[in-house]
Amino acid sequence: MYPNILRHPGPTPIPKKVELAMAENMISHRSEEFVKLYRETTERVKPIFGTKQEILLLPSGGTAALEAAVVNTVSPGEEVVVVTVGAFGDYFVSICEKNGLVVHKLEKEWGEACTKEELADFLKPLSNIKAVFATYNETSTGILNPVWELAEAVKEHSDAIFIVDGVSGIGGVPAEMDEWGIDILVTGSQKAMMLPPGLSIVAVNEKAWKVIEANRSTAYYLDLLSYRDWAEKGMTPNTPAVSLIMGLSAVCDLIEEEGGISKTAERHEVMKNMVRAAMNALNIELLTDDEYASPTITAIRTPKSLDLAEYLRHLKKKYHLDFAGGLGRLQGKIFRFGHMGYCFPSDILQAVSLMEAGLQDFAYSFEPGAGVRAAQDVYLASLRK
Amino acid sequence: MYPNILRHPGPTPIPKKVELAMAENMISHRSEEFVKLYRETTERVKPIFGTKQEILLLPSGGTAALEAAVVNTVSPGEEVVVVTVGAFGDYFVSICEKNGLVVHKLEKEWGEACTKEELADFLKPLSNIKAVFATYNETSTGILNPVWELAEAVKEHSDAIFIVDGVSGIGGVPAEMDEWGIDILVTGSQKAMMLPPGLSIVAVNEKAWKVIEANRSTAYYLDLLSYRDWAEKGMTPNTPAVSLIMGLSAVCDLIEEEGGISKTAERHEVMKNMVRAAMNALNIELLTDDEYASPTITAIRTPKSLDLAEYLRHLKKKYHLDFAGGLGRLQGKIFRFGHMGYCFPSDILQAVSLMEAGLQDFAYSFEPGAGVRAAQDVYLASLRK
Questions:
Q1: DSSP secondary structure string, B220-283?
Q2: Residues B168 and B267 in one domain
Q3: Per residue in B17-73, pLDDT tens?
Q4: What are the alphabetically sorted keywords of the record (chains A, B) (predicted)?
Q5: Among A109, A217, A218, B129, which residue is least crowded by beta carbons within 10 Å?
Q6: Which of A8, A33, A197 sits opposite B241 (nearest CB)?
Q7: B22 chain-A contacts, CB cut-off 8 A
Q8: A96: domain CATH number?
Q9: Nearest to A97 by CA among A61, A67, A63, A127
Q10: Is the complex ipTM higher than 0.90?
């Protein structure tokens, strides 16, 4: 009866409008109806990526799209740089290593971002780097890497292409792929894009296409050239995730209704600030500094004196509030408050209220209401702008 | 307003119960709820595959699962045999060749099946074959290969593993993976499995797992070992297609409600016979003989004197009846009447009636009602059994 309040970094809640769109009558992926759906929808995704490039839709999770970016551009034995600031950067390293690449790892403390200067210094002594990879929004730590600056460092200090994992950011944060000079940008459906998992979205610019054309990949399912060829006909090389594409069209409706992606990104910025203000008011520490804090997910340190696992279990069991724990080396040290996609300031007020109720149950020392009040202040200030 | 009557070989219509299941509240793929869903659902899929092996669920189209079967078991430069009786056999050849395998192609006329003797004769002079691939239900021609016999030929004449593409069959035809000796069996969601595209289902037996463990694959997303490891925990290595798995659970409900997969397969057998009887009564030729005719899809030759493309366009435009055309070398020569998944004898009567209406519009010479009557006779006889 009680709905689970899913405040995870993905999968995230699905809007009713999207659920209904996905329940539309099935159509053939070789029909005129599909071509129209595909063309219109990919066109409408372009502003969300900040690109004029063709949008490719793969019937797969985000991991497959990241692997596609790797195997289509770099061959075994070639050198790449991976900027890793958390678990998903490390994940990228694993994908590269499994595929036989020589990986130079620019590793940061978990909770920190990578700056332009750091990447520039790292690239200077290296030659022969074919590609530089970075995570835009690191889901494990709640960090937004300044990829617009990292792109500059890549251009200034190498001929490499710059590949960005946008999985938990795109749809909730600003993205200007073309302007910033990202060569391949990838995201998945189940995070800020408000869809169930199973669709990945990829954009590739001319520089990267040249690399892909020159590179000999053995991948069949993940062959981006075949996706490009078929996209010209408004179709995909194999059966696409038709219902998710119907849902994606509804997602575009919602974002356009809100006033476009810049407005949607503003809402995420407000939610980020609400969560951060609330935690400060509750004397609960955040993992990251404000400067590079993610607009879609906040990593929160264990409230003092609490058993984190017990607190999270309690919140879920008694209040149906479902947060995600820490990943890897941060397991047991932080929890993650997802505020992406179909999530609103009212949801932040709700979650903070329930967090406070749970803190009272654990006799945590704080002024009840302080967190909610701080979040409200941020919200109200944003409305007065 | 008028619903499109989708009589394609996939994607196929989605049952309302499945649509609603897929619209359930999203859950985390690392939650207890998911583990329960995953464990129960994969257990219930086993009878549909005729296996006691673990069922693996990949968030991908069927093509990716076919490629997974290839890249996990065979390394570049190694030799395989591909039995191809149509477009999807050829597709398998392409996947193998792109991945650098040496392919021995056992090619049959489109519209014919491959027999045990033919495969045995083909295998005898070959040594060093690592894997034999065959399509169970060839969607392009409406042929059901006797894979139970082909499996015997593989065991008798090689040490190879036997990999079967079950994509448009499984869920609508008998499958006894363990009893027949299929080592890897693969299917997709959007055909007889009554789901939207985007989920593939794979089962692997002990013999094939040994080959996979010994084989060094560079695939990350399609690494079957990682799926096996995570399946032990009731999870998947990366974000699964959660909503499709919710839908798969509802599909299992429906098949169990019908009396189990053997009853579901009987219904498909009746529909096949209805379509074939109707076409015979209308003097419209079938591509295949009865012996190996597919229970899920029938390939029908162009009715005499008709312009096929014009007839199909007319059926869709005037009667909203949507058939699939021919693929590859059969384009313009046949059309394909899909009767798989959420399709019932009543749907066959409807489609044959509308086909007859269309034939009258084209002044085709036939006895109106003859096709429907013949289909009814088959249907009524099946009910009397």
A1: STT-HHHHHHHHTTTS-SS---HHHHHHHHHHHHHHHHHTSHHHHHHHHHHHHHHHHHHHHHTT
A2: no
A3: 999 999 999 999 999 999 999 999 999 999 999 999 999 999 999 999 999 999 999
A4: Aminotransferase, Pyridoxal phosphate, Transferase
A5: A109
A6: A197
A7: 19, 22-23, 196, 243
A8: 3.40.640.10
A9: A67
A10: yes
